[in-house]
Amino acid sequence: MPDPIDSAAGADAAVEAIVRKHTPRPRPPRHRLLALLGPAFVAAVAYVDPGNVAANITAGARYGYTLVWVLVLANAMAVLIQYQSAKLGIVTGRSLPQVLGDRLGRGPRLAYWAQAELVAAATDLAEVIGGAVALHLLFNIPLLTGGVIIGAVSMLLLALQERRSQRTFEGAVVALLVVVTIGFVGGLFISPPDWGETFAGLIPRLQGSGSLLVAASMLGATVMPHAIYLHSSLVRDHHEEIGEGHAARQAAGTAPIPDADAVPSGQERTGRLIRATRVDVIWALALAGAVNIALLLLAASALSGVGGTDTIEGAHAAITASLGPAVGAVFAVGLLASGLASTSVGAYAGSEIMAGLLHVRVPLLARRAVTLIPALIIIAVGAEPTWALVLSQVVLSFGIPLAIVPLMRATGSEQVMGRWRDGAVLRWTSRAAAVLIIVLNVALVVLTLTGNG
Predict the structure, then answer these.
(1) Engineered SS bond to 98: which of 78, 153, 249, 356, CB 3.0-4.6 Å?
(2) How many domains, in total, are found in the chain?
């Protein structure tokens, strides 16, 4: 005859097991969500680089509030495109260059790599020149020497990624992003914009063919091709590092090993990462968009109609004269932080492009040293820095369709993405963005060739 006590204990255990199985699991703690954030903020650095400063200051100084709508539209497209890039990396575990490298033949793959490298070179040009200008403004360092210093410091930042961890690199870049934000937004508190004119600037319009060139440079500076290639790599490496770290802590006994029922399936984990990435992208790109719009509004409110303010040096001088040396110094510090952060991210993107398309992985530090040379040559020959920055953003504008069209095709493919392929609304919205960018670039070419640009 069974012992009544043992029978009661067994019944209680069975009831507890049933209750535990059917009790809804609590939401993950907030710190777990925060651990999943970060890659989009690194990608967002590309959206507030010195090229943005040059393009947005030029737009505000020359055309006032007229081109505000370009930044709003470009930032909305950036949110869409960076989300697609991140989702591709999460679902496939591969970067966009890897996906393309696996699907293209040798000839097309080499041609595609060549244009992607041209985009990366234009990015390096903008970032190194911008940082060199900032050092010149702050410490009167010659531009060529400043370019060398920017390259050296960016190599130190890249060493964090190669020798420490992805999270350490992300933390350093995000810290610089905070400095950029303070440096470029701070001036608006001293010289607030005309909000009526700002809202009027949301109505799409242009002021002659010259404004089209500036609009194209703004678009190229906001929707960055190398950030599109890189974001899919960032999320892949970020989440792999988190997973490896947690596994190591479990093996060491410092992290709990969950019950089998509590471990999410592969599909559940993918869905959770995609939702976290959506938050990451929205927060990061909202911050970058606010900085870009602040730059244009500052130029429109404080620099419009003032001669010589459509260059970074002229803008700094005018800001210092009208708003005080403290605001001018904060602006220059923001420009310096922008150059340091974005040149590191640009070198990282170039390395991932080469690895995915050529299946060759060059050490980040060696690549940074090589790609620094063209930018230093441009500085050495005496090219006007701000105009070189604006033209580099036009080059980037032509590289955008070659990045977003393959991305759009990949994320809209059930063969590539499975159940996580883009829905109909997202597919058609991304197609509309691609068409708009291509039409703008064709118009720019026509105006330039006919002498109206």
Answers:
(1) 356
(2) 1
Please report which residue ranges of 299-413 form alpha helices under DSSP H: 312-323, 325-358, 364-380, 385-411
Contact partners, residue 58, CB within 8 Å, separation at least 6: 214, 217, 299, 310, 386, 390
183 touches 298 (CB < 8 A): no
Give, in order, the Cα–Cα distances in Å from 204 to each of 66, 215, 253, 317.
8, 11, 59, 31
Q: What amino acid occupies position 311?
A: T
**Residue 363 resides in a domain:** yes
> Which is nearest to 314 in space by CA: 57, 49, 55?
57
The answer to whether residue 117 is domain-embedded is: yes
CA-based diameter of the chain, in Å?
103
**Residue 400 domain-assigned (yes or no):** yes
DSSP symbol at 117: H
The answer as to whether 30 is a domain residue is: no
pLDDT tens, position by position, 339-398? 877 777 777 777 788 888 888 777 777 777 777 888 888 888 877 777 777 677 677 777
Sequence-ordered alpha helix ranges (H) in 186-265: 187-190, 195-200, 208-222, 225-252
Q: Could you tell me the pTM of the whole model?
A: 0.78
**Domain interval for residue 365:** 36-255+264-449
Quick: pLDDT tens for 309-319.
Answer: 556 787 788 77
Please give the Cα distance from 350 to 374 (Å, whole number). 14
| H/E element, 91 | helix 68-92
